Fold:
Amino acid sequence: MIDSTRLLLFLTAAVLLAVAPGPGMLYVLARSLAGGKREGVLSALGTFLGGMVHVLAAALGVSVVLARSAVAFSTVKYAGAAYLCFLGVRMILDARKPEASSADNFTKTSKSARNPLWQGVATEVLNPKTALFFLSFIPQFVNRESGHLFFQFVLLGSVSVILNTTADLIVISLAGPLGRKIRSSAQFQRRQRTVTGVIMIGLGTYLAASETR
Structure:
């Protein structure tokens, strides 16, 4: 149903993006540091459920359009590839800005939170960047000729969300030393954002170029 080469590329990109510390991972880390592993696990479960909401919503909306129009299919893929490159450039530029640790900011806000599960769901569901990411990332690996676009979208999106949650759970188990590393080292955060940005630009460029062949 899905081309094996594209599936391998998807898995590689999804794993690299899952292990790169982002807002979701920093949120789960902060909850773990503030309230212990139980709060961290509940927060990770919340972001998982929120991510699946985005996957299902995007699959319902996009799959119908892509199935009916080859032009729309190509447009979404090119626009998605461009958006991935844009995200990569912004990550690299943000890495050069002096700013307070994101983990510290999340820790401050998490102390007043009551329910880590539902806050995790709300944090993910109400994040427009998550929706844009799925709308730009997943269609790059969908095979229109194979049909079943909705199920392809849900399958790939679910794998992506599961990988993200797995990475979050690993972070929870290492919350103490990893939290100190991320919060105390501005250089570590800058390097992480730069590397992730380069990955996003490379992925977007490759996918856009592959569409022209």
Notes: The mean pLDDT is 76.
